[in-house]
Design goal:
Elements (H helix, E strand, L loop, with lengths): L7 E4 L5 E8 L3 E4 L8 H6 L1 H10 L4 E5 L16 H14 L5 E6 L3 H10 L4 E7 L5 H5 L2 H7 L1 H4 L1 H13 L5 H13 L2 H12 L14 E6 L7 H10 L3 E6 L11 H14 L4 H10 L14 H11 L4 H8 L3 H15 L4 H10 L4
Parallel strand pairs: 3-4, 3-5, 5-6, 6-7, 7-8
Antiparallel strand pairs: 1-2, 2-4
Helix pairs in contact: 3-4, 8-9, 14-16, 14-17, 15-16
């Protein structure tokens, strides 16, 4: 287990003081805070979250910051607009002088991540979005969520306890109590309400076509608070969006099968490898009359490799074109050969020509 990272500070464009941490080795991944409940120290001290961070930082550099008005960042703020939130993300990345990053957005932070990726297409390598939409209201509109949020002004302690156990399950025990304490310690009820009101009005739908980064849109199969159609629509509207459906119903990205989820994220962020679910869900979302198997058994990345292979590119040339390692391309080639029953490059090229892929 690594030590808790040192909390550092930088100023946002409007002078708001922002707390952030940097830990691990490897390609940088920026956690956009899941507003309005972020608290660096309490998150790193939470055994469940700490385990996830330890796994991520074995292969990635994790950049983590508290949103304005929360955690260790400046608390006495009034501007929680989309512009202010995206500007804070810009400030943290600029402070670290990072040429390229990957981004993880969850729930209400998804519009901020999308907006940043649209504004800085060359700077965002890959993106993962969970439980969110291009419109903040899509994340908050469920009647159960609205009923929960109504407790913020009525009974802050009851809200924290209820929210924590809705996220983690009522049998969470010590983990649930720790999450409730984090909610109470992260923010005041007044700031929570102001942040949520501003977030609910955010809408970056018009910026989706400008996002150049390959993006995994992750959804849990049993998650009812966020309809599957919201995630499916987001994946479809992003130019390089992929829908990945995880098993389980808990409304947290790492709450179930955390090790498997970390593996999916790390493989995608490091070399662009997509889980098999991406192909399955992507093909299910296509319109009737689309290509038949084995075409739709290939992931988007495998299709990219097949097209370039059919054009005569070598594995090393394909790797350079797609920004991946040669070893990764070799794995994709082996997988697509198996899926299309090809004995070699000639068979694969013929398959591509027969199916209009070359």
């Amino acid at each position: 287990m690594i030590g808790s990272p040192t909390i550092r500070y930088t100023d946002g464009a409007d002078g708001v003081r922002l707390a952030y941490t940097v830990n691990g080795e490897g390609p940088p991944l920026v956690f956009v805070p899941c507003v309005p409940f972020s608290h660096l120290r309490m998150e790193w001290n939470n055994p469940l979250e700490r385990q996830v961070f330890d796994q991520l930082t074995q292969r990635l550099t994790l950049i983590h910051y508290d949103g304005r008005g929360t955690g260790h960042s400046q608390r006495d703020v009034t501007d929680f607009s989309l512009e202010a939130m995206v500007s804070d993300l810009e400030s943290v990345i600029d402070r670290l002088d990072l040429a390229q990053v990957s981004i993880l957005g969850q729930y209400l932070s998804c519009p901020y991540a999308i907006c940043y990726a649209a504004r800085h297409p060359r700077r965002v390598k890959r993106m993962v979005l969970f439980g969110g939409s291009a419109r903040g209201w899509d994340t908050l509109s469920d009647r159960r969520i609205q009923a929960l949020l109504s407790l913020i002004e009525q009974d802050w302690d009851l809200f924290a306890d209820t929210a924590a156990h809705q996220w983690l399950g009522w049998s969470a025990g010590d983990a649930g109590r720790a999450e409730a304490d984090k909610i109470r310690g992260s923010v005041t009820p007044q700031i929570a309400r102001a942040t949520l009101q501003a977030a609910s009005a955010s809408d970056v739908t018009g910026q989706l076509p400008l996002v150049a980064a390959p993006t995994l849109v992750v959804h849990r199969r049993g998650l009812t608070q966020i309809p599957a159609d919201v995630s499916r629509s987001l994946a479809r509207d992003l130019p390089l969006g992929r829908l990945v459906v995880l098993e389980g119903a808990q409304p947290t990205l790492f709450g179930q099968s955390a090790g498997d989820v970390v593996s999916v994220l790390v493989d995608f962020i490091i070399d662009g490898t997509e889980p098999a679910e991406a192909a399955a869900e992507g093909s299910a979302a296509e319109a009737p009359g689309g290509p038949a198997a084995p075409y739709n058994s290939l992931s988007r990345r495998e299709l990219d490799v097949l097209r370039l292979l059919a054009a005569g590119d070598s594995n090393s040339q394909i790797a350079r074109r797609l920004g991946l390692s040669t070893n990764t391309i070799e794995r994709h080639v082996v997988n697509l050969y198996r899926k299309i029953d090809a004995r070699g490059r000639v068979d694969a090229a013929a398959h591509a020509l027969r199916n209009g892929l070359a």
